[in-house]
Amino acid sequence: MNKNLEKAYHNFIEGIGHLSSSLGFSKVMGQLYALLYLSEKPLSLDDMVKRLAISKGSASINIRELEEKGAVKKIWMKGSRKDFYEAETDLAKIVRDRITLSAKWRMDEIGNIIQKSEELLQNAKGNSNDSEERRKIKFYNQRLKEMKRLYKRANSLLGKFLFFAKTIKL
Fold first, then answer.
1. What is the pLDDT of residues 64-103, one digit of tens each?
2. Which is nearest to 38 in space by CA: 67, 59, 68, 8?
3. Angle subtended at Cα 64 by Cα 25 and Cα 15, rounded to the nearest 5 degrees
4. Share of the chain above pLDDT 70, in %
């Protein structure tokens, strides 16, 4: 293999590994994705382990996570009992899916916090005879109403953004 071609290949795999690590994922996850992205044909776990010089356990855990994230998919190869994988090459789809999932999760979490806080305030209201406590409950309820109104607007905007994002090709 041409030395510069080989250097470019290894540079890409190592670079994506480091980028992955800086984004909070494992280095191996990035390297596996990069390896599959540059592969002209699906690779088995054994192929990936050999090419990256990593443990089979690490490869297995990270490939499953990549599969869950929609970044790679399992491919059936006629005549082999091994699992083969290929990269999702639509990078815009991967980014959109990750942003969508992350935003939905955060919005759900905010909704749950607001709901739980409202329930706790209702319980506190029923158990309070102190005027200072009632004043605080009223104040907290006002703040929660403001937060809930903002949450509903943000959730609506997020829904519109996600709908729009699905319709465009990057």
1. 999 999 999 999 988 888 999 999 998 878 877 878 888 8
2. 8
3. 40
4. 98
Bridge partners (DSSP) listed for residue 36: none
Q: Tokens at residue 84, please?
A: 């083969």
Consecutive H or E run containing 137? helix 131-167
CA pair distance 117, 137, nearest whole angstrom: 11
3-state class (DSSP) for residue 27: helix
Q: How far apart are alpha carbons 31 and 13 in whole angstroms? A: 5
DSSP state of 86: E
CB 39 within 8 A of CB 63: no
pTM score: 0.70
Give me 166's structure tokens: 């699905």
> With contact defined as beta carbons under 8 Å apart, do 24 and 37 qualify?
no
Least confident of 106-115, 136-145, 152-161: 152-161
Sign of CA dihedral 168, 161, 96, 64: negative
Question: What mean pLDDT comes out for the span 50-59?
Answer: 96
Instruction: Quote the DSSP letter at residue 1.
Output: -
Residue with tokens 């990549």: 66
